UniProtKB/TrEMBL annotation:
GO terms for cellular component: cytosol. Belongs to the methyltransferase superfamily. RNA methyltransferase RsmG family. It comes from the Bacteria. Residues 1-30 are annotated as: Disordered. InterPro entries: rRNA_ssu_MeTfrase_G, SAM-dependent_MTases_sf. Its main location: cytoplasm. It comes from Bradyrhizobium nanningense. Specifically methylates the N7 position of guanine in position 527 of 16S rRNA. This is Ribosomal RNA small subunit methyltransferase G.
């Protein structure tokens, strides 16, 4: 049998990615960046759960959801990349606060669910509630596929509808207690999407930014509404609560 010399052994070790003395190569730049992001997200999670505490079971579901989102984010733009370090405070806690504004709501509809905020988060939070369900309406097929996988891995009570937002009434069967939408459209358009569900008894909760007054002024041109504003726990925004809406003639 042909013997291998020391030079040959070094060459094989180099190709296998092992340094002299059997030491593994140092982490590359990408791995270091991932580790730094993991640390930032962990700290952000602790801050978020102080703002919106959840059970251990819900926390575990949310952990699986965030892991899946980060995996899919590499190939499908689910959230703005700049918000990744603050996924928990910017997106998770921001979504969880809606539950406290509709404490008896069991059946939710999230219009334009996108990356799952607030729909998947609500489904994770409602998983231990008997009879709970969350309808997630999304018009982009890749995002709808992600939402289905998120509902599966978190074992949460969600139903994903691949449909245009305006088709939600035909897709959603049964009563809805609360309808919501986040970062989808101006308020007057959101009311138009939600009004058929509101007419059937649903409350509407719409997270909005600092320009909420301007959006309310514009919405009043099209709708008779009596809004109630709740200040967001997670920033300078507001949540618009509506119990009814009537189109102006």
């Amino acid at each position: 049998m042909k013997q291998r010399g020391p030079g040959r052994d070094k060459e094989l070790s180099r190709r296998a990615g092992v340094g002299e003395g059997g030491a593994k190569p140092k982490f590359g730049k990408a791995s270091a960046n991932d580790q730094a992001l993991d640390s930032i997200i962990a700290a952000d999670k602790r801050a978020a759960l102080k703002l919106a505490p959840v059970s251990h079971e819900t926390e575990a579901r949310l952990d699986r959801y965030i892991a899946l989102l980060r995996e899919w984010q590499a190939k499908t733009n689910l959230v703005a990349p700049s918000t990744l370090p603050h996924l928990w405070t910017r997106h998770i806690a921001d979504s969880l606060q809606l539950v406290d504004l509709a404490p008896i709501a069991k059946r939710w509809a999230d219009l334009g669910s996108g990356g799952g905020f607030p729909g998947v988060v609500l489904a994770c939070a409602m998983a231990e509630t008997p009879g709970a369900s969350v309808h997630l309406v999304e018009r982009i097929a890749k995002k709808a596929a992600f939402l289905r996988e998120a509902i599966r891995v978190t074992t949460s009570p969600g139903v994903v509808h691949l449909a245009e937002i305006g088709d939600n009434v035909d897709r959603i069967t049964g009563p809805v207690d609360c309808v919501t939408a986040r970062a989808l459209a101006p308020l007057h358009q959101l009311i138009g999407f939600a009004e058929p569900l509101m007419r059937q008894g649903a409350k509407a909760l719409f997270p909005k930014g600092q320009d909420v007054e301007a959006e309310l002024t514009e919405a009043a041109k099209y709708w008779n509404i009596t809004p109630q504003l709740h200040q967001s726990r997670t920033g300078d925004g507001w949540i618009v609560e509506l119990n009814a809406a009537e189109r102006r003639s």
